[in-house]
Amino acid sequence: MAVVSSSVEGVRQKNFRFRCIGCSSLSDAAGQDFRCGKCGDLLEITYPCWKESRPDPGSLKSAWKSRKLSSYPADLSGVWRFRDLLPAVEDEAQVITLREGNTPLYELPQCARITGVPRLFAKHQGMNPTGSFKDAGMTVAATFARTAGFRWVACASTGNTSASMAAYAARGGMRGLVLVPEGKISWSKLSQALDYGAVTCQLRTDFDGCLRLLQDLVRQAPVYQLNSINPFRLEGQKTLALELLEQFDWAPPDHIIVPGGNLGNSSAIGKALLEMHELGLISRLPKLSVIQAEGANALVRSVREAGGKRLISVAPETRATAIRIGNPASWKKAVHVLEATRGACEQVSEVEIARAKAEIGAEGIGCEPASAVTLAGLKKLVKHGFVKPDESVVLVLTGNLLKDPDFTIGFHRGEMFGEEENTALVALRHAPIVLDASLDAVIQTLERFN
Ligand code: F0G
Question: How far is it, in rounded angstroms, from Cα 198 to Cα 214?
């Protein structure tokens, strides 16, 4: 079979349709809100052509491997290297890429000892060009925004989406409009959006309020929304799972654990797993589990109290600002992938998040607070017997340590919690030490820690 569905390298025919996740209606075009014209549910991208000519798993795997040696721009991207399972861009020269993806898989030996799960790994999406997993989705959605002729792209964000969108808009010659909750996103993320030249509005509301306003805006102005409601974003984010399985030589781990906020990423990873299984790229499905902060636990409550049948919104509060979301847009997609992969959802406290973040930091890797919910959640899943000690587990670390220095410094200085918690965390805290600039003072400090 032809791995790339084209006769001329770089030119591909349209290979996808939109499908409503509620009523399954198919369409060739999507409105600005990416919702079904019939029932109002969210749309996803589907590939009817796979039924007509099923891609061959062996050919796909070897094509993806050989592209690693290529210098063709789309092959240098860890997202577009997997373009056979992505919506086809008519002219691949139009792809907006920052060489996203290609992120490392690390072993976590110390965290493995702490959790009692020896085969523990981190897929570090914080090693993407703008420091978060958002880049994998943004390269695809920004490319489609530009090929559709949009001059303006926009997003609501807890910080990482805005940083990523601003970067890809700038690279693609588009204007970016960012809506963020005032005072509720980290300075690092805000500074990225400013530096990449986006028009950045700090709204006096929370993330959910920003997203609502964006929905109204795109109905009235020629602005293309790049939130994860946009199904092109999720197609790009699928490649995290493709790359991960390739790193495992296509032998699936038992568990993949991911943080949950607006629930786009869990939906994307789940969609990728289901598609890989359907296409015969993997022989069994890993269980995909989603972890939320206790103060922003809409999915956990919806599953526990309503059997995943309706969304229970919450008024979100957590220091892990990236996932400070009370009304997750992709909750139905996430419930579907939890059920289909037989995964779990769990919630963790602020102290558990801070501890887990320091433990990941102590591995020499580090991540932002929202990513650390995965390790904190794993401890609970092990305790409840859902994860067995002989199983292999991958934590998806979604953001870079440098994304939220205020959190990290506050933790190490002991400014975050009360005395009791600080004492319990003392072995993990490394406060900076202010000294006179004398050799004696430094040597005494060295001896104190010896
Ligand atoms: N981890 C990080 C570091 C994030 O930035 C986000 C979401 C998540 C996890 C949750 O992913 O929303 O797909 O469930 N950040 C979004 C933003 C909302 O605007 O940057 P999700």
Answer: 15
Which among 240, 255, 250, 253 has a CA at the least distance from the CA of 280?
A: 250
Q: Is 106 helix (H, G, I), strand (E, B) or coil?
A: strand
Atom of ligand 1 nearest to the CA of 370: 1
Mutating to test ligand 1, I would choose from 189, 207, 265 the residue with most ligand atoms within 8 A of its C-beta, which is 265
**Are the beta carbons of 165 and 198 closer than 8 angstroms?**
yes
- Strand 255-259 versus strand 223-225 pairing type: unpaired
Whose alpha carbon is nearest atom 11 of ligand 1?
Answer: 261
Tell me the two tokens of residue 268. Answer: 């994307």
Q: Express each pLDDT in 206-255 by its tens digit.
A: 999 999 999 999 999 999 999 999 999 999 999 999 999 999 999 999 99
Is 0.85 topped by the overall pTM?
Answer: yes
What is the best residue among 207, 398, 401 to mutate for testing ligand 1's pocket, by most ligand atoms within 8 Å of CB? 398
CA distance 83 to 250: 18
Atom of ligand 1 nearest to the CA of 262: 12
The Cα–Cα gap between 270 and 304 comes to 20
Paired with 176 in beta bridges are: 153
359 has pLDDT over 90: yes
Q: Is 348 helix (H, G, I), strand (E, B) or coil?
A: strand
304 residue type, one letter: R
- Other CB atoms within a 10 A radius of the CB of residue 283 amount to 10
Give the sign of the dihedral formed by CA 187, CA 189, CA 329, CA 377: negative
Residue nearest to atom 4 of ligand 1 (CA): 322
Give the chain's mean pLDDT: 96
The CB of 160 under 6 Å from ligand 1? The reply is yes
**Residue 297 burial (CB < 10 Å; 0-12/13-18/19+)?**
buried
